[in-house]
Write a structure and sequence with these properties.
- It is built from no helices and 28 strands.
- The strands form 5 sheets. Strands 13, 15, 16, 19, 20, 21, 22, 24 and 26 form a 9-stranded mixed sheet that branches. Strands 3-2-1-27-23-25 form a 6-stranded antiparallel sheet, with no helix packed on it.
- β10 and β11 form a beta hairpin.
- It starts with 12 loop residues before the first strand and ends with a strand.
């Protein structure tokens, strides 16, 4: 895989007392400096891989950037290290069934399922599931068969612009939309070698967070409004409280809510201050893959 230096958004918009942040859209009141490289935090695996076939994984750091030289350990004892692109090409173990991977030195793990070769027809390229609605600043997954396990061997364009394949296997692609993509319906074109995928469309939405980002105090109620641009359909959002000691997220943690739909498509969440300090609420779009 060619060497690349790329940074991606995490799966969330985030509001904190000093700033409203989305890793690709920064509204911080502080001077902006490129974040320093930090250790790997998030392991991205295709949902399924195929016994004895190539697959690609990726590791992101806390800033949502691909992380070179991160060590990944699988539950069967296999170990590998990400290359200069923050990804690693590997051959799936031979025994079908579930397997887990984790980043060395970090808690938690990610799971994938090893399919037998008989469960993976090599031709033609077929898509079995793709989200109807996806975020402009987050990865999304396509399931099917006939894809390339080497991420860079897949050609993916969205509205004619090249998208970046973070992780892949013959049965799944994890894709980051192009940075300059506009909200709305877009064509998605896939190819691997001489195989071309079917005509696909996805509605890409922009989430715009509107809230008072000043410090919160005990008993203060604060409404967070997320405006959805790119669709008039209702979408489901999830809010998660990252600092429950500072503020309480009304309705629990996390809280899921549908947007209103319509021309003024928006969702609202409420926090209540518990003590003075920096509160952090992350909000992400929940994807529901659509079977083809």
């Amino acid at each position: 895989m060619a060497s690349r230096c790329l940074s991606f958004a995490s799966s969330r918009l985030c509001i904190c007392a000093a700033a409203i942040l989305s890793p690709l859209l920064s509204f911080s009141v502080l001077a902006q400096k490129p974040p320093q490289q930090s250790p790997g935090r998030t392991l991205l695996l295709p949902r399924t891989i195929v016994s004895g076939e190539r697959a690609t994984l990726a590791v992101l750091d806390s800033n949502g950037r691909l992380t070179p030289r991160a060590t990944v350990i699988f539950s069967n004892g296999d170990r590998l290290t990400t290359d200069a692109t923050g990804r690693a090409l590997f051959v799936a173990p031979l025994n079908p069934g579930p397997i887990r991977g984790s980043i060395a030195g970090r808690p938690g793990s990610a799971a994938t399922i090893i399919l037998s070769s008989s469960e993976n027809p090599s031709t033609p390229m077929v898509v079995t599931a793709i989200p109807q609605i996806a975020s402009l600043t987050d990865r999304f997954e396509i399931a099917g068969h006939g894809f390339c396990g080497d991420a860079d061997a897949n050609q993916v364009t969205i509205s004619g612009e090249t998208a970046f394949v973070l992780a892949s296997s013959p049965t799944a692609l994890l894709i980051m939309p192009p940075a300059n993509l506009e909200p709305g319906r877009a064509s998605v074109d896939l190819s691997c070698g001489k195989q071309n995928g079917p005509a696909l469309e996805v509605v890409f939405v922009e989430l715009v967070l509107q809230a008072d980002s000043s410090p919160i105090a005990p008993g203060v109620h604060r409404t967070l409004t997320v405006r959805v641009r790119g669709t008039r359909d209702k979408v489901q959002l999830e809010a998660k409280n990252l600092a429950p000691g500072i503020a309480e997220l009304t309705g629990g943690n996390p809280v899921r809510s549908f947007s209103s739909g319509g021309l003024e498509n928006a969702a609202h969440f409420e926090v209540i201050g518990r003590k003075n300090g920096t509160f952090q609420i992350s909000i992400r779009l929940l994807l529901s893959p659509h079977a083809k």
